[in-house]
Amino acid sequence: MRALSKKWVALLGVLPALALVAFACGGEGEEGETFKIGVMESLTGPGETYGTVAVQAKQMAVDEINAGGGINGRMLELIIEDSKCNAQDAITAYNKLTDVDDVKIILGTSCSGAMLGAAPLAEEEGVILFSGLATNPDIANAGDYIFRTSLSDALLGVDTGNVLWADGIRNLVTITEATDYAEGVRRTTVEQFQKRGGQVVGEERYPSDTTDFRTQLTKLFNENPDALHVAAQAEFAGGTIIKQARELGYDGPIYGEVVAIGTTALEVAGEAATGTKAIITDLDPANAKGQEVLTNFRNRYDYVTLPWYLGSAYDNVYIAAECLKQTDDDQDADGFRDCLYGITWSGAIGDDYSFDQDGEVVGLANVVVEVLPLAERTQDNQGYRVLGSAPAE
User: Of 204, 205, 173, 178, which is closest to residue 189 (Cα–Cα)?
Assistant: First the structure.
């Protein structure tokens, strides 16, 4: 909980600054008016750890841009709403940003369910929705104004299924949070695993307010699986599942995705997480920009979690700034959309990536990581070592 409290202390320091910027800016068309863009992230709910880190990374990027003179001489302002990691609250946040704040460009959301809830409205009304974190495969079909730098779970599922098969797993059990994101991870993983010849011998799902998974895990382990696959929406749940699995005496392999090995998840799981494998996007240690962003973020907020998604949120702001520089109009969603379709970007999460005709990021890839023993986990290694790329079919 210590790391979480630091996040909220830092975030509370961000919000008054945003209010001050909003008070100081002039009216529409006045010289010195800010560019206003919306932000929808999960500051509460299952996605609060990564929603918070995304807002903080975005604010850091905005402060850098403004300190450098802004965009075409104008400052950049974020108007932040809490989408709470669900569709209903995302729609409420979207309506507030578009109806009250007259925003046409929104960065977010953190969670796939929130993204899928707001996307039909954004598409119908011609509002940009640009996410650095949402990964459900269905987002690819959400429309012409919907973009993301996060990789689709369709790719994650293929990579995870291939890793399971290559590691000799033939009988798998799964435990999955009942959300669009986690279900997307489970579904695509199982499809690929079964395509390779594997068998799922047990599966359990749980609501997001669950804290005790022992009954479900016991049922799964009674099937004598070769491995357990965890798909969690919240870091707290992911870490708790791994911890309770080991407490029940399960000593087999555990596989997961980025949420299950985030900083908070590893704090919850402790030594129980050692050896857990996950298929994730990761910042390349050789990417100087990515390492610079991590260093600056840690110096500013005194913690780091889920570094790739931190970098993705940061890159989103700089990409948005480039498109605003081209359009010089934060109400020109069509011009912003066309800029995204044509841009090639190098930033914290990789070099020379771009967007295809569905607004899907191309030019980035997943890696396989393994959680280190507790004594070997550091801020620099984020608690895991990279094993390499996922094997192909």
Answer: 173
Q: Which ranges in 248-306 belong to alpha helices (H)? A: 263-269, 288-301
Could you tell me how many residues make up the chain? 393
Fold designation for 35-151+287-362: Rossmann fold (3.40.50)
* Helical residues (DSSP H) of 2-136, grouped into ranges: 2-24, 48-67, 87-95, 112-125
- Tokens standing for 305? 């979690």
| The architecture CATH gives domain 154-280+367-389 | 3-Layer(aba) Sandwich (3.40)
Directed axis angle between helix 87-95 and helix 112-125, to 10°?
40
pTM greater than 0.85 (yes/no): yes
- The pLDDT tens digits for 304-314 are 989 999 999 99
Q: Rounded CA gap, 187 and 302, in Å?
A: 36
19 CB-near residues (< 8 Å, 6+ apart): none
Residue 225, classed as helix, strand or coil, is coil
Please give the distance of CA 297 from its chain centroid, rounded to a whole number.
Answer: 16
Digit-coded pLDDT (tens) for 245-262 = 999 999 999 999 999 999
